[in-house]
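An instance noted here:
***
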Amino acid sequence: MKNISIQIAIVLLVFGASSCKDDSPNTTNTVEHDTTPYELSLGSFPNPELSSDNSLTVQGVKLGRMLFYEKMLSKDGSQACASCHLQEFAFTDTARLSIGVRGLEGKRQAMSVFNMAWHTNEFFWDGRAHLLRDQALLPIQDELEMDETLENVISKLQNSDMYKDQFVRAFGSDEITAERISLALEQFMNSIVSNQSKYDEFLKDSTVFTPSEKRGMQLFFTEYNEFFPDASGADCAHCHSGYNFENDRYMNNGLDAEGMWEDKGREEVTSNPRDLGKFKVTSLRNIELTPPYMHDGRFATLGEVIEHYNSRLKASSTLDPALEQTRGTGLRLTEQDKTDLVNFLKTLTDKELTTNPEYSSPF
């Protein structure tokens, strides 16, 4: 009986030791730097020229996504970047001027955040941010927007083990700095790609356009011709061309007459009088989802936008020359022309963008 008791005790000791040995790896939560590259969904787009010092990684994009949706970045914890850049509206909002944490309106309409990886000519309506990482930090500090200091943001994030661990995964240590915050936000915004519209499917012969959509496309890409009205188009591609339907330039599109500018646009940044009234030419992709339109949100509908170019351009010294050529006669668009143009523009809507879980809140 004694021998049996001893044998049982030995078995229990061995089992206990074995159990402890098996459990020990599970009680160690090892957080390691992970440089696995993040692969962009290029579709028919060319490879973007991203900054060599901030290559996209899975963990860097994940951290940026967390920060994009993080309300701790605002003064009172009520707003995140995503509060004014909503996925359902192609990462903008439908307010003419977005409202900040103090209940005050911003100065301009929120810009969409997609296909940023292919923008190479500064950021914001006036181009005051040279790189996307520079743009990322300014709304946090703007008193009309998130109204917070970078020092306070860093302090709040440092109190979170979740964020410290993610900074380790993304950057190799748990040190949280304004630069690292900006780099992570840049990575996430560069990861947001929109290239799955009906128009993209049409180019691949995977769908067909309605007669109205097809005619709208023809009007869109056909140049204005003063002398042959029957052959004249809306000349939209003059400014909105290529795979992203923009030209990465700053232009005066005739919104205000000479001397009537409330917002000087690009000139506020360059101090060059030739830039008076010029604003960044934005992508027309997802334009159906992003009203109101223009830097100040003055147009509520696409119909109003088209009518502006059709007959309401204002004369000024910096008006784009191609638009100036149309002022004498206007584009001479009929009501059917306008309807067809709107129907074509709606083919640029990417519904996958608005529901893609890779871009949604991680919380």
Remarks:
- The mean pLDDT is 92.
- The domain at 58-193 is CATH 1.10.760.10 (Cytochrome Bc1 Complex; Chain D, domain 2).
- The chain is about 35% helix and 0% strand.
